[in-house]
Every structure is written in structure tokens, then in C-alpha cells.
Amino acid sequence: MSAQQMHTPTAEGVARAAAKIAQLLPNTPLLETEVGGVTVWCKAESLQPVGAFKIRGAWHRLSDLSEQERAAGVIGVSSGNHAQGVAWAARRLGIRATIVMPVDAPQIKLAATRALGAEVVLYDRPGGEDRDALANRLCAERGATLVHAYADPWVIEGQGSMGLEIAAQLSDRWISPPTRIVAPCGGGGLTAGLALACPDAEIVPVEPEGWDDVRLSLEAGEIRRVPADAPPTACDALQTPATFPINFAVLKERCAFGLAVTPAEVRAAQRFAFERLHLVIEPGGAAALAAALAGKVALDGQTVLILSGGNTDPDSFAKVLAGKD
């Protein structure tokens, strides 16, 4: 049985991850704004060193590897943000990192991953090639450890550290713990971690329209896959075919429902974040804000919206700002 199979993500694990991460990374800002006249709080994870929250889970996972595991290296799977998180942690720890990334990943994410010293192995996402099968084959050939983007217990716990950070930041402002955390959702690593970290908060996963497998899974009570004819999406960070049992075991107990947002709603959220919060947010990172602006989720003064990443190329972002989309 592998280490992943033996380890179950827990609230205690989230607390341990948070303590490790606090020694390495400063808190990201919790910014106050208004949506529809209601105060909400935006967690600016786009300001992490790699431009996304994924650095949390990557650091918790890689820093827990044994010396033997570190010597054999790690294999990650990612469209770009987890890739950079793993590459950043691996470089700091002196570990060889290889990331399986799609050929259609944004060039800015491919370049940043390579710049951090990781080897990039491309797979044909548009053609339906299975990235997990490729990653598992590389692990078997090299004896490396798989660091999955969301189906890894350490990664889930590391992402959950954000929830403890949010609760502490609200407390510092004399505000009660969050009643609701709305988060962009791909495979469910972040939402599962937040659910473990903040058991009294409503956790709302938000996905791009057509890639809302978690929403469909929650409705069905069992894991559902994205259909083969899923539409193209600018939300590459959330473009996952299905959640995994380790994530869904948490989500089905803690998430009453999921939401889907349209491309136009995502672009409106990117513009809002730039104009009101002075932040550059990538399409996937804007999904939670998009749901709030579209009136798809209830809001109150203790609602937190996760702005999960800001890794977008200048040309695409400029078109969004100019409304040329």
C-alpha cells in the first residue's frame, strides 16, 4: 500500500500543514469589498510567490518526504499552477521535479515551471491522452513519488491551511469565523481542504460551465465525469475531468451544492478584481468572485471569496479588460 493510500487527510493534518507553511510564507491579504451592497472578503492567493495557492499543498507534501523519497524525485500533474508550486518547493528542497503538463497549457505557465527548474513532459489533453496514466508510468520507471494536483492527502491538507488563515484574519478584525467560503474548484483539493479546516462554514465549489463535474457529482451523490464534448474554457486551472474518491469523500459530507459560471461571468469578475481590488486574476482564479457577482450564491459580511490564482498572460488579460473577448 502506498503512502497516499495509508494517509487520510484530517483537520489535524491541516493544522500541521498550516504551522509549516506559516514558517515559510506570509499570510496573503484578505481584502474587503462590496458586492451588491454587501461586504465580502476576498482572499488574494494570486499574491503567493508562484501566483497561486498551490504552493501550500506542494510544500506540505514535499517537505514530508523521506530522504530516500527526496533522492528519487517527484512527478506532478498540472495545467500550470500546481506545476509551479511543486517546482518551487522542489527547488528549495533540492528535489528533482518532473511535471506532466498539457500541450495547450498557457505558455506563461509552461515557461514559469521550466524557469523554476522542473522538467516538463507534455501530454495531449485535447486529444484525450490520460495524464494520470503517463504520470504513474513515469513514477514506476523512476521510482519517483507522485504529487497529484488534488488527489493527494498532503496536498488537500496543505490547501486547507488557507481556511485556518482566513479564520484568524477575520478574528483579527473582530469578525466571527466565516459563514461561507466560496472557492474555485477543479478536482476538489482546495474545497476539501477548506471543509476540513472550517467545519462550521458552508463550502461552495465553483466550476466553469461545461466542466462542472463536482457540481454534478454532488447532485448525483456519486462521482460524475466531464462529458467528452465539454466546451473549450479559458479556466485552464479548473479543467479537470473528474474528482477523485479521496476528495469526494469529504465534499459529499460538507458541500450541499456546487455552482457553475459562464465565460462572460468569469471575465466580468476579472475586470471587477482589477478595477476594485487592483489585482490581476486568471480566469479560473476568478470563478468564486464570478458566482458572487452573478448573484448565484448568498452573501453576508462573513462570506469569503477565494481568488485562487493570477497566472494569466498579458495579451489575454488585456483583451478581457478591453472587453475584446
Could you describe the 3D structure shown?
There is one protein chain. The chain is of the alpha/beta class. The chain has 14 helices and ten strands. Helix 3 packs across helix 8, helix 9 packs across helix 11 (245-254) and helix 12 packs across helix 13 (287-293). The protein starts with a helix and ends with a helix. The model has no long low-confidence stretch (mean pLDDT 95).
Keywords:
alpha/beta; 14 helices; 4-stranded parallel β-sheet; single chain; 6-stranded mixed β-sheet; 10 strands; 325 residues
Q: Give the helices and strands as they follow along the chain.
A: HHEEHHEHEHEHEHEHEHHEHHEH
Shape, per Cα inertia axes: globular
What's the main sheet like?
6 strands, mixed
Read across the widest sheet, the strand sequence of neighbours is 1-2-10-7-8-9
Portion in beta strands: 15-25%
Number of extended strands:
10
Alpha-carbon distance between the termini?
Answer: 48 Å
Mean pLDDT: 95
The share of residues in helices is 40-55%
- Derived from helix and strand composition plus strand pairing, the structural class reads alpha/beta
Give the uncertain stretches in residue-range form. Answer: none
Output the number of helix runs: 14
Radius of gyration: 18 Å
